Amino acid sequence: MPTYVPGFAHDVFISYAHANNRKLTKDDEGWVTKFAESLGNFLEAELGRREYFSVWRDRDELRGNDDFEAKIDMAFLKSAVLVSIFSQSYVESQCCRKEVGEFSGAGSRPLS
User: Fold this and answer.
1) What does the alpha-carbon distance between residue 55 and residue 10 come to, in Å, rounded to a whole number?
2) Overall number of domains in the chain
């Protein structure tokens, strides 16, 4: 999929604790799902077409037989922007803290 920011596999990586996307009602989609949809709609309006950018989110990209940790690690390290949905659940999640730490450290590395 093409990206808006050259040199990256994804423009945006959404990092969140799954507890923050729990459905509050039977028909609810979850807050993070709504946010991701709104972000995609906003970027589409600003850039012209959804095909012009890439937003990575585990729910949309991971499949049952994937190596989750490896696939997530590759995705956030190849993303131009990390959007972190900070909450108490996020701070308590070792995986979420790892994403922020490694993404922050990757900023000093050259693009590949």
Assistant:
1) 6
2) 1
Torsion of CA 72, 64, 22, 84, to 10 degrees: 10
For the chain, what is the mean pLDDT?
82
If one counts every other C-beta atom within 10 angstroms of the C-beta of residue 39, the result is 16
Nearest residue to 90 via CA among 24, 6, 17, 22: 17
pLDDT confidence band for 96 (50 / 70 / 90) = confident
In a domain, 52, yes or no: yes
Q: For residue 62, what is the domain's CATH number?
A: 3.40.50.10140
Give me the pLDDT at residue 62, please: 46
Residues listed for the chain:
112
